[in-house]
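The step that takes the researchers longest sounds almost clerical: writing a folded protein down as plain text. The outcome of that step, for a single protein, is printed below.
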Amino acid sequence: MSPSPSALGNRVPATSRAQHNAIVELLRIAPVADELAARFAAAGHQLYLVGGSVRDALLGRLGNDLDFTTDARPEAIQAILAGWADAVWDTGIAFGTVGATRAGIQCEITTYRADRYDRVSRNPDVIFGDTVQGDLARRDFTVNAMAVALPLRDLLAGSSHQDLLAGSSHQDRGGGGFVDPHDGMAALARRELDTPATPEESFADDPLRMLRAARFVSQLGFTLAPRVRDALSSMAGEISRITVERVSAELSKLMLGANPRAGVELMVDTGLAEHVLPEVPAMRLEIDEHHQHKDVYTHSLIVLEQAIALEDGEPDLVLRLAALLHDIGKPATRRHEGAGGVSFHHHEVVGAKMVRKRLRALRYPTRVIDEVATLVFLHLRFHGYGGGEWTDSAVRRYVTDAGDLLPRLHKLVRADCTTRNRRKALALQRTYDDLEARIERIRAEEDLAAVRPDLDGNAIMELLGLPPGPLVGQAWRHLKEVRLDRGPLSRDEAEAELRQWAQDNLRAP
């Protein structure tokens, strides 16, 4: 029977929920964690659950990926895991980390670290430490600088529960204890990010921690301690020391968080975005009394939130990036018109090119780049639909050009309506409802998912007596355009169109 959360005391505000969360989560992982701890103890070594795993246990969101730290060196870790783990792999043995799985739980076990940084290069000089306190002192934030000594059975046994949140520095292998030398539990209760050392030292050691702070704001709803925000603002340029791959990985996690708007706003407000996504702060266009127009930056953040509300499953990185970046072409295309007007002609074309350039620079996968750029390119097309004046041909082209991205395009276009005029907003939504209904009607009548010419390449070559080559491709593309304009053709109609094309384009020299 699991103990009552009230047995754990009341150290800081909001800890009772954390106590309950921790008990539930630690009981769940105890069978595997204690088996592992017993093997380390038998070999004469300490083992702690550490960092993000302790934080997430207290938040009630611990998954099946666990982080441990130990005084054992990497070779000893590998020997201890042999014969116990279902699989063992090297996740960075030069950095003291060995990975393993057991009963569906993934474990990363890292030797205590006491690294030194030259604050010029991108990687530390890896130095193994001797104490868990020393290891915790080098971590990024105090909420990640907590550890729980193993085995868990002693910690979770009756009267020992008070040790869980007592901030103990207890290290006896047999006794267990909660290790919190930097008051991470109090910071967690405040939902505040602070650093074990000064933030200037922490960010100088690893500038990626600045972007990680924005990621935790997005993922976990944390705020920054004033001194951390000040250091981030003054040191934002240091992020250029970090490899592009690490930056893009953190940015993706931020964008996939529960509240990416908050993370993006922190990046912009502190200047970090100038070095990661400079196109986003560039959307903060000045507004004067003669040329009033919508704040593009704020609009984009609202579109991001509204697109997230339309997701129907897991967080969608492509949709979220497209929502945030859909208007990045506006600053470059802004023109002041007469009577106080402002135009952004072809900003979707410019924006799609800018998206490709930025995401390539961040080394995103080609698929992500292509999909985000396509959504940005297409997001304005609906506004030519008017009151439903599009022909069926135009609807077919809309569907064909979007391809597999059509469901995301639907969400992006709907999210892009941020007008405060309720009547106008409802009119736009009704108009898009009408377009989606027309798409479904035409889809039911035709195979819109596979719009293709009514004659394939073999038929074209046979009818025109052509060998394989560019002319066959030209004929195929012509038939596809006819198919989009007129819908499905009979065989006779398609052959007549092909012969007419050949007469117009294959004249003898």
In short: The chain has four domains: 5-190, 193-276, 309-450, 457-505. The mean pLDDT is 84. The longest helix spans residues 15-42. The two ends are 92 Å apart (CA to CA).
